[in-house]
């Protein structure tokens, strides 16, 4: 690492120093070049999705990329789902349709994330503090049992659930979908929260217990507030995963409870694809998460980094 | 038993016998209720009695009542110890009832011929599905594809490691790059793969095709040739999941003490050598965890394939999950699909166990 010093005219860099500086500059250029290249790879599809939503057919055929310069942005894409400024006031079936799917996505992802964080935090706390014995299973076995659910591919459960839900009348209901998405994120939540609780010293609860609180009282009033950032991280990570969940939703829902990804995937009309409406839908599907990601990036990184480093 | 608890609690539990008896009663009573409703509904399903029930919901409700009574009964019967069990019991009940039971039920389905649109219902057909699987070239093809997909993780890992190193270097606008690199993971793979797979990679109008024509490389085809199609799917999946590995590796890099790097530099190991002899060995445990988790996620790969290529051309991009999904959508036969999924599960469990053992052996001698 070179230290930038004020250049006085009397001191001249030796040949070796100059070479060193040139090398440092090349390194910087390569580094920033690579960073910017990857940032473009990451952001271009998002840019393309959002801008395509404002294009007309002729702009698409010409392959325009830059708005205002190459084409005039239009609201046609958003008008097709009833979200453009001139259609927002009018009653429209496409918008009703879209809002229904959007609400389904929102309800399913929120409730399953909250349920997973509640169940997962309790289990992780219990496993980090007490020793259990269910039949032959001890703490490590129970932890492994929870985490091993991660390996289970959704397709193994999908068809039995299809049959079971049909028998139980839960097919195409939000509750049925919530149960399955909760199950799919629960191992991840337990993984993150186990790490969180293990980092909190037990002396805190011991003090609380001496002061007369019960085990649950100590958990709710002392430990929960300390573990809150970890829980938020777990909640956000589950929100992201459940919002994007496609496989179960595609298989188990049809008309009432299907979510936004299912709606996006089923947009092939008989006369080809309406790119602008497709792009507007995709934009609506990814925008909440772009906002979430930019605003709460710190929590997501914290959630994913937990457990990686022991 | 509570001697090895990390949190040691001494409580004087003298539970009145009536309370213990009450706890036992509600557990047994609700258990009996569950058994009774299950028996009655089975009788109805076999057309022995007619109760006028259309779904199995009553059994579900009885199960819920039993689960609540079981939790409550623990506290009544075992006092303080029961309250501790209450932390883990709900999650255990939830997972067991949603995985173990459907899995057992799945074995039953796997050995039968069951077309959901057929009014005859389930027909036990023994090993016929297994024979059919053995002779199904598309299933073996999908399994072979999964091996290729998993091998692509090596490239993803190399890129993710490079990105993590860059984010860990002294750079400006670190926050911007971190957010930008993280975003692909957050976005719905279905929505993005629609836009990327069908619009950006469009052979006539897409920006990539235009760029390649402008450069005089001719018109590319991304989903025509089997190998290119698979590489495209791999690239799209990598785009989504590289940030995931990157974050884990970045956390690992940040956990390496600064002194270690400095000591290595003093000893003359800088740049390339310092990386291979100091950073990389220290990162091995994190790398193994990241790769293992990535493999697990890769084995579930389906939504991109289903939306973009639906397995084409000629099954070249099929994953096991997308194949079973289509198998069900086309023929609505749950029996055969479930058998394929069960076999896949067994293969995964065996492969992951071997992989974890190998990884353990690989990491241990160096750390």
From TrEMBL, chain A:
In terms of CDD domains, this protein maps to: TM_PBP2
Task: Cite the ABC transmembrane type-1 domain residue spans from the record.
Answer: 102-296
Q: Which domain of life is it from?
A: Bacteria
Function, as annotated, reads: Part of the ABC transporter complex MalEFGK involved in maltose/maltodextrin import. Probably responsible for the translocation of the substrate across the membrane.
Provide GO CC annotations from the record: plasma membrane
Q: What protein family does this chain belong to?
A: Belongs to the binding-protein-dependent transport system permease family. MalFG subfamily.
| Bilayer-crossing regions | 29-50, 102-124, 144-163, 175-193, 213-239, 246-264, 276-296
* Topology of this chain in the membrane: Multi-pass membrane protein
Identification of the protein by name: Maltose/maltodextrin transport system permease protein MalG
Which InterPro entries would you find in this protein's record? BP-dep_ABC_trans_perm, MetI-like, MetI-like_sf
Family annotation (Gene3D superfamilies)? MetI-like (1.10.3720.10)
Localisation per UniProt entry: Cell membrane
Query: What processes in GO biological process is this protein linked to?
Result: transmembrane transport
Q: Name one Pfam family in it.
A: BPD_transp_1
Q: What's in the keyword line of the UniProt record?
A: Cell membrane, Membrane, Sugar transport, Transmembrane, Transmembrane helix, Transport
Source organism per entry reads Rubellimicrobium mesophilum DSM 19309
From TrEMBL, chain B:
Q: Where in the cell is it found?
A: Cell membrane
GO terms classed as biological process: transmembrane transport
- Topological category with respect to the lipid bilayer: Multi-pass membrane protein
Q: What is its main location?
A: membrane
Spans through the membrane: 21-40, 60-78, 85-111, 146-167, 179-197, 227-253, 274-297, 334-356
Query: Which SUPFAM superfamilies does the record associate with it?
Result: MetI-like (SSF161098)
Indicate the segments forming the ABC transmembrane type-1 domain, all copies. Answer: 142-357
Q: Which InterPro entries match?
A: ABC_transporter_permease, MetI-like, MetI-like_sf
What GO cellular component entries does it have?
Answer: plasma membrane
From the Swiss-Prot or TrEMBL record, give the protein name: Glycerol-3-phosphate ABC transporter, permease protein UgpA
